[in-house]
Amino acid sequence: MKIKSQKDFFSGLMFMGVGIAFAWGSTEYSMGSGARMGPGYFPMVLGALLALIGTAIAFKALVVQTLDGDKIGAWAWRPLCFILAANLVFGILLAGLPSLGIPAMGLIVAIYALTFISSLAGTEFNAKGVFVLATILAVASYLAFVWALKLQFPVWPSFIVG
């Protein structure tokens, strides 16, 4: 069979790989049942669905003809680096890095850093728009994780709240 859309085919393979990895990793936890789900139930179902979607996408790439074959282009290094850096900085700011003497800065500071760093991945930067987005994300995250779910992690830097 000939690949008629390289982008879709390799995207499907990626989805299949990630889905299989999640499903396989979830076998280490108890599954439970549909009425009383264990910690492995959701990752297993999610992984299986992701693998199934990936299979459908890869199959479509082998069957449906595209105009130019949807060739895979060059790596987008700038977005890749900024998105990875934003997630790394988010994790470090949220929990701190005691081995290097970096204290936990909390959820709000981490979300602002994540939003501003990841916005540099694009070709256009609008500081006002990014600030508004970061504020909305920070408020929504606080309401969802701290207020509604009652998760226990630092919201503000320790030097502010004491």
UniProtKB/TrEMBL annotation:
Q: Where is the signal peptide?
A: none
The record's annotation in Pfam families points to: TctB
Which stretches are transmembrane? Answer: 9-26, 41-63, 75-96, 102-122, 129-149
InterPro entries assigned to the protein according to its UniProt record, in alphabetical order: DUF1468
Domain DUF1468 span(s) in chain numbering: 10-154
> What keywords are annotated for this sequence in UniProt?
Membrane, Transmembrane, Transmembrane helix
- Superkingdom assignment: Bacteria
Question: What is the protein name given in its UniProt record?
Answer: Tripartite tricarboxylate transporter TctB family protein
What species is given as this protein's source?
Answer: Giesbergeria anulus
